Amino acid sequence: MExxxxxxxxxLKQALPKGTFIRTIGDLKQKTIFSDSxxxxxxxxxxxxxxxxxxxxLISYQADNSFILHGGxxxxxxxxxxxxxxxxxxxxxxxxxxxxxxxxxxxxxxxDANDQxxxxxxxxxxxxxxxxxxxxxxxxxxxxxxxxxxxxAQRILSNDNFSKLVNQxxxxxxxxxxxxxxxxxxxxxxxxxPASVVxxxxxxxxxxxxxxxxxxxxxxxxGVGISLKSADSVLETLTYDPVLDRLVxxxxxxxxxxxTVSDLAKFSAMSISSLxxxxxxxxxxxxxxxxxxxxLTIAKQxxxxxxxxxxxxxxxxxxxxxxxFTNAFKKVxxxxxxxxxxxxxxx
Length: 347
What we know:
This protein is of the alpha+beta class. It contains eleven helices and 13 strands. Helices cover 36% and strands 28% of the residues.
């Protein structure tokens, strides 16, 4: 891959188009990522035509009941912001080449690996809004290694750094990149399309070796960076509850739909009172408050990105009247949505 000399400011311009619905086409090696729903530079109206975002040698692999791999050697084709939902997990991002601008809710990272590779581990104790900003002609070599909640819960044995990290939402730890991590990451990316059982085993073995390097470094560290938002200050202990995990995944997939506690109780095969009690005890927040908070958080990102007007964001968040949405928004984030938009326009 040729030297990446593009100028990188690391700040999102409000003129960037943004989108949420992403799909990938291509063969086992060369793929292109498209957006099928995006805004243009001047308005929040959505266009039907597809927009090519990224092309290159992409890796997308999932081991049964274990890790998920995403990444590869790619070229970003347009200035764009991708918006999505990231599920509860432990996310390891390793950037070997290029620039990477991404974030979870209000936790943001701006990395430039042209001088040296960068890497970070982020703990997601619950689903969050994910953002990644693309810059035209930016060439990236990176790997995302995602560990699901079930995998993590089975490995919490003591009050070590690993447990401290995964037990707090949006806690994060910057890795020191060594030659072994670079070599393993590069070999995993090169093995992006296993065509046999042996090649799958080789890919999974390399990933296990990389995880060992990462967690050995975490275990030896003297401290772990922790970031807790004032609006989300509830500490969550990481106990695996398959019923609630399935319910939360269902909620996240249907935040744009009407949901009642009765409907969710039926989905969980529980009584309303039992579900409310179990949800509050496990997550430290009531069921309806969780749904309301997630909808407002998504609305906040959409407003900051210029993807929607206040009226549209209010409607999508389940509010019939924008005034009610404004009051709820200000109560959670300490600022009315109008001021948020003005602040974003000034950046």
